[in-house]
Design goal:
GO molecular function, one term: monoatomic cation transmembrane transporter activity
Shape: elongated
Distance between the termini: 26 Å
Number of helices: 6
Helix content: 55-70%
Largest sheet: 3 strands, antiparallel
Number of strands: 3
Family: Belongs to the CPA3 antiporters (TC 2.A.63) subunit E family.
Order of helices and strands: HHHEHEEHH
Strand order of the largest sheet: 1-3-2
Keywords: Cell membrane, Membrane, Transmembrane, Transmembrane helix
Subcellular location: Cell membrane
Number of domains: 2
Organism: uncultured Thiotrichaceae bacterium
Length: about 160
């Protein structure tokens, strides 16, 4: 068992015991132990397919991306409010378009699709064949911004392996 899994097992046991507060109920202790073992087993299986090292590298770059995404959410939220409050000046022009993506990993593709959906006014509808996303946007400008590729580039940088 790797040190990561040992740390996870011990951490989950301590966390469960501290949060549950049931130290004398045998049934709850057995169920808690079973849930901790199940989570550790699932983590072991996940680590075999997706090694922790690449995810750890991504986690170091995640705060910077999260801050950038937060600012994008605020900017697009302002745009959506303009469309709602001033429909004559900022008309809603719904658009459904295929947007390219350059991510190679499942995690990168998931982060990109979820980032699009988190941004007000855009929703990822589905993943298309050939590395494309079907996206619905409240306005044509939303599609133009996505096709410009700033978000795609940032997520791709997030997932890249640097030595």
């Amino acid at each position: 068992m790797s040190s990561y899994l040992r740390f996870l097992l011990i951490g989950l046991v301590v966390f469960w015991l501290l949060l549950s507060g049931f130290w004398d109920n045998t049934l709850l202790l057995v169920l808690g132990a079973a849930s901790v073992l199940l989570v550790t087993y699932l983590a072991f299986r996940i680590e075999r397919v997706y090694p922790l090292l690449s995810l750890t590298r991504m986690l170091y770059r995640l705060p910077q991306y999260t801050a950038w995404l937060f600012l994008e959410v605020i900017k697009t939220n302002v745009d959506v409010v303009k469309c709602i409050w001033l429909p004559g000046r900022y008309p809603i022009s719904p658009a459904l378009a295929i947007v390219p993506m350059t991510q190679q990993t499942r995690v990168g593709k998931t982060i990109y699709a979820n980032s699009i959906t988190l941004t007000p006014g855009t929703v990822t509808v589905r993943l298309e064949q050939g590395g494309h996303l079907l996206v619905h946007a409240l306005t044509e400008e939303g599609i133009v911004d996505l096709r410009a590729g700033a978000m795609d580039l940032r997520v791709t940088e997030l997932e890249e392996k640097r030595s």
